[in-house]
Specification:
The protein is of the alpha/beta class and about 270 residues long. A six-stranded mixed sheet has the order 6-7-8-3-9-10, sandwiched between helices. The radius of gyration is 19 Å and the shape is globular. The chain starts with 15 loop residues before the first strand and ends with a strand.
């Protein structure tokens, strides 16, 4: 459940909650663009998977969508408004990020760490209240870490820390959740748990945008797919028409075959 009075972004404008037009970004000057004239629409309330080889700009695109990086050209719109017009607090209430890796400088307990997700709803120097604690506990229960809430975060396994990062983002209660390679540190069991969580969030109206190297993961959870290469979108659309052998082979510059097995798409290198 989101905060009372939070903005219902899903009912505004067109079917795209995030719209990117002409986006260009470089870390090292205009001659070394990571993204070049990129345009994209992210459908509201759907799971969107962004795929592409290393260096294609997937993580950079997520950080631009979050507002922590700023484009050299082009514009990002959130619910019809320029992203730059939102305050940092507003953005933090609407957009959440699950990074692939996160450095935690303090020896937080798991619960204390997840409570950091409530920061966008607290005033300066304000401590979390009971409602914030309950939101954090619900998030921990959702990812299966409720029993570990008192453990020191550094004592967790890599997979458990990744799930704790997901829980922190869930406690934030964002309208749009961005996930960078969310299954990278998870074993098969926890991958299945996370996919179930993502599907549930989508049914509750949360818009999910995830990057992945695994087209089978995208086929299993996403309704919309974006294929990127060299800082540009090659193709974007419904998963069933985007994750084809021809389009994936062009994206990864490698022969790919796509099969149907028990009604599910299976994608393999030839």
């Amino acid at each position: 459940m989101r905060e009372a009075g939070s903005e219902n972004l899903g009912n505004r404008g067109t079917g795209a909650i995030l719209a990117v037009s002409g986006l260009t970004f470089s870390y090292d000057g205009p001659g070394h663009a990571v993204l070049r004239d990129l345009s994209l629409e992210v459908p509201t309330g759907a799971v969107t998977a962004i795929l592409g080889p290393n260096g294609s700009g997937k993580t950079t695109l997520l950080r631009l969508l979050l507002g922590v990086l700023h484009p050299a050209a082009g514009q990002i719109r959130l619910a019809g408004r320029p992203l730059a017009s939102y305050s940092r607090r507003e953005r933090s209430q609407l957009l959440g990020l699950v990074p692939q890796d996160e450095h935690i400088p303090f020896d937080f307990s798991v619960l204390e760490y997840v409570l950091l997700g409530r920061a966008p709803y607290l005033g300066p120097l304000q401590m979390p209240g009971e409602a914030d604690r309950q939101a954090a506990l619900v998030a921990l229960h959702t990812v299966g870490l409720e029993a570990l809430q008192g453990r020191a975060l550094p004592s967790l396994s890599g997979g458990e820390r990744q799930l704790a990062t997901v829980a922190r983002a869930l406690a934030q209660q964002p309208h749009v959740l961005l996930l960078d390679e969310p299954t990278a540190h998870l074993d098969l069991s926890n991958q299945g748990r996370l996919l179930t969580i993502l599907r549930h969030l989508a049914t509750q109206g949360t818009t999910l945008v995830l990057t992945t190297h695994d087209p089978n993961l995208a086929a299993a959870v996403a309704g919309f797919a974006v294929l990127m290469r060299s800082g540009q979108v090659l193709v974007a659309g419904p998963t069933e028409t985007t994750l084809t052998a021809e389009k994936l082979s062009a994206t990864y510059d490698a022969p790919v075959r796509v099969f149907q097995v028990d009604g599910r798409r299976l994608i393999l290198l030839s």
